[in-house]
Amino acid sequence: MIDKNTISESYNEKQREAIAFSGKHLLLLAGAGTGKTKTIVGRAEYLINQGYRPEKIQILTFTKRAASEIVERVKAGISDQDVRSLNGSTFHSWCNQLIIKFPNLFGAANYTVIDPDDQLSIMKMACGAASEDYGKTRLKPQQLLDLFSFARNTRINLTETLRKLLFKGKDDLQTTEDINALKPQVELLIKEYQSQKLRQQYLDYDDLLLVVANRLNKDAEAREILAKAYDHILIDEMQDTNPLQWYLLKPFENICHLFCVGDDAQSIYSFRGADFKNVHLFQERVANSEIKVLDKNYRSTQEILDLSNWLLETSPINYNKRLTASRGAGKQPTIVNVANQFEEANYIANHILESFSEGGNSFTDFLILSRSQYYTRPLQAVFLQKKIPYQTFGGRKFLEAAHIKDLVSVLRVINNPMDEIAWIRFFTFIHGIGAVRATSYMSEVMRIEPENVHGLDLTSIIPGKEGIKAKSYYDAAYQNRGNVKMAIKDLYKTMEFDLAMKYSKDWYEKRKGDFPVLEILSENYATLGEFISEGILDNSANVAGSNTLGGSKINTAELKDHVTISTVHSAKGLEADVCFVLNVSPKTYPSAYSLGNIEEVEEDRRVLYVALTRAKNDLIITRSKESINAYHHQTDKDEDDTSDSAYFLEGLPEHLALQTSPKSFTAPVTDAKKANTIDLDLGMDFS
Ligand SMILES: Nc1ncnc2c1ncn2[C@@H]1O[C@H](COP(=O)(O)OP(=O)(O)OP(=O)(O)O)[C@@H](O)[C@H]1O
């Protein structure tokens, strides 16, 4: 038995107590930079050293990146070969693995996981099939999907979902009547979507969680089976769990031990149904549980924490949190007022290049945080111009790129011949086949008896040269169906010419390089089904060098020195020596859309808090001069609007940050010392 005194000196007393926790369930409430991630790593190591089997310990995180970081760190700390079976994944990926691992238990192993694009196609089919009802709703298919997903994730009823998402929470008589009028059609369309999905054997992301959660909540035998498979579940970012994830975790209360870490002040996923107050109710909800607290910050200097603490203190919510820096004092944060985005981008690029050439910093020391990836385009352009290597986090994922989806569609129909969306994508890829013909060929495929559909000859369905082409693609993949990498390699060889034609505009610059990457990615998967479902959920391959991969979350350790540009939402758990937080301007923090809604304003405050607390030594905040001036102009006019929540940095005490503006790019002009009177003759000859 190892006691807490034998745990490494690199942990502080409170961390050690948490690591060696011997009760049933624990919530570790800890502020930013207080060592949550480090403590999870320590807990996993400790449990393995205690003799628990690594495969019976599951680490759950919100991003694949966080999961692999934790698992890699545990592996680095323990030399034993066995540690390879330690598993870290996102909630969705874990449920997917359970479905594959226990095909009988969950009964969904032959289903295909679909991404949001595919979901939209199915919802469109559902709306088409029930067009009369759909016409009455005046909702878009995407809105219907959002309603469905929100209701499932928050587990609130349709009436309240409609009220919240479509009627801004209003509960007057007219709204109630409007909701009642809309409900039957929305219900019908959602049910139609669900039955289309089931018929074609698809699971959307929410289904993955529900399939597992329903079975475990309702079936004692299922709980017994999983109790044999798991001893401990370690959950990161507990404040971001939504009611559906709580529903999934609930049965584990009696299956194994839960070790949860979270920070209420970093909860930024309420749009997915997360509620930071959940962590406050932990002990009421989880029997036999305890709470411990970490409050010493190891990441940042006290000046960075002072600014972050101030931001939370100006909130009407009591977070009861004041972080102190174990590292002591450092540099004052800077606020840079910029004239426009190009000035901002040039300022950042020059700052980085100066620090780099002065020899003190490498590119990885810089982290740039923005609310949206879109906002960083001018910055990326300037970085390209100035040859600053960078990597982006957040944004569209690798396997969602059109050229990749074309190739994967062929693999999908081989894996699941009921996959209608994939058949249509496959057929319409062939030059000369449009949506109408593709749909009719797809219907013909659907009429084939299930036992004859595997390895079918597509020339018997599609006449002429298009049929020959379709057959060549299908066969290239089908013949290699037992070997994912070979299937991709052969299929790509067969499709390459047509892919290059379809995407001729940017084939060489943007797309061609992705296919070798896809092959490398496939090495991680044993079967086509696994590749398709896991790959779609999580394409964080340990590979780099592809343009499209720029938008995905890839393992930074594999990349050379680079700056990281990330959305704040993807920056959870990141830290850097120098951190730029972009555009902390009025109407962005909080967002213009949040104003008037206290919950949304406070979520925006937490987003900014997450951003500020990523910096270790140097925090540089930019904001737009123009929007500050407009804001002050507006508040001068409208004296009633004195709320601090209208702009978070309003009222910032001077000593908390230094203000500056970038040096002007044009050389300063020297005027005459004496002011002359104007000399203006008519300037023309009238002769
Ligand atoms: N006991 C300790 N001694 C020295 N350094 C520590 C200690 N605990 C954590 N750290 C360091 O503090 C930094 C923050 O730790 P970590 O990333 O684990 O915090 P966190 O609580 O997960 O942060 P956040 O929630 O803000 O992402 C890391 O650089 C880590 O190595």
UniProtKB/TrEMBL annotation:
Protein keywords: ATP-binding, Helicase, Hydrolase, Isomerase, Nucleotide-binding
Pfam families according to UniProt: UvrD-helicase, UvrD_C
Protein name: DNA 3'-5' helicase
Cross-referenced InterPro entries: DExx_box_DNA_helicase_dom_sf, DNA_helicase_UvrD-like_C, DNA_helicase_UvrD/REP, P-loop_NTPase, UvrD-like_ATP-bd
Domain UvrD-like helicase ATP-binding: 9-301
Binding site for ATP: A30, G31, A32, G33, T34, G35, K36, T37
One example GO MF annotation: ATP hydrolysis activity
Any Gene Ontology biological process: recombinational repair
The reaction(s) this protein catalyses: ATP + H2O = ADP + phosphate + H(+); Couples ATP hydrolysis with the unwinding of duplex DNA by translocating in the 3'-5' direction
Top-rank lineage group of the source organism: Bacteria
Family: Belongs to the helicase family. UvrD subfamily.
Domain called UvrD-like helicase C-terminal: residue spans: 302-573
The keyword Membrane is annotated on this UniProt entry: no
EC number(s) on file: 5.6.2.4
Species whose genome carries this gene: Leeuwenhoekiella aequorea
Gene Ontology cellular component annotations, sorted alphabetically: cytosol
